[in-house]
Amino acid sequence: MSRSTIYTPHGNENEHGEADAEDIAEEKESQQSEIIETGSVTAQGRHLIHCLTIIGQVEGHYILPPQNKTTKYEHVIPQLVAIEEDEKIKGLVIILNTVGGDVEAGLAIAELIAGMKKPTVSLVLGGGHSIGVPLAVSAKRSFIVPSATMTIHPVRMNGLVLGVPQTLSYFDKMQERIVRFVTDNSRISPERFRELMMATGELVMDVGTVLDGEAAVKEGLIDELGGLSDAISCLYELIEEREREDEETEERDTDGSSHDH
Description:
The protein has a single domain (21-254), classed as 2-enoyl-CoA Hydratase, Chain A, domain 1 (Alpha-Beta Complex), CATH 3.90.226.10. The chain has helices at residues 21-38, 73-85, 103-114, 132-137, 165-184, 190-197, 213-218, 228-260, and strands at 40-44, 48-59, 70-72, 91-101, 120-128, 141-144, 149-152, 209-212, 224-225. Residues 1-13 have low confidence and may be disordered. Strand 1 (40-44) and strand 2 form a beta hairpin. By secondary structure, the protein is α/β, with parallel strands linked by helices.
């Protein structure tokens, strides 16, 4: 299970301004434990930021086989709530390398990220396929490396499917939820997204489209081509912009209250 404590404190400084060796070792051990348990870490650079990784398959209500690399939504959701509520953490970077997975679990995580007030930046490495597309666009700013790919395809379901009209209606509604979320959180139009989703001739055994990094940016799905340093720099800029806005709001409120008196 993921830990409730996200923030990792820094070592206490001695009279020479140097961090105590034992505190540093303890902090490193705490960070390593956090990475092992949750696949995430809180790092201090210019600002304190949290790095969340979404890798392998997004696991939903059913437990996947132990040999599968998974991201468990019951771990990620409490982390996101804790990050949003922790005043020390100034921003969130989401690293994606996922084949997709459970649609409702993926959408739940994506909606939480999109609803956060804190600055968020996503970076697609390797792949951001299927439900990884909404997850990638859920951040306030999205990046993708040139070698990464994103697969856009219709909603599919494994196992027993009842051959009744209601099943088709359910699929249509779920697909519309995905189209609406992606187009609301990126620059691609609903018509173009559906066109890419239903394209034939691109995938051997399926309908859909595979976009590389450059094509994903060109289509308006992802904001920019870039790597880790670009994503971190952008996140710092968003954090500093938010801090300036908060200061201006505070000044206006102070001026307004002084005029009232």
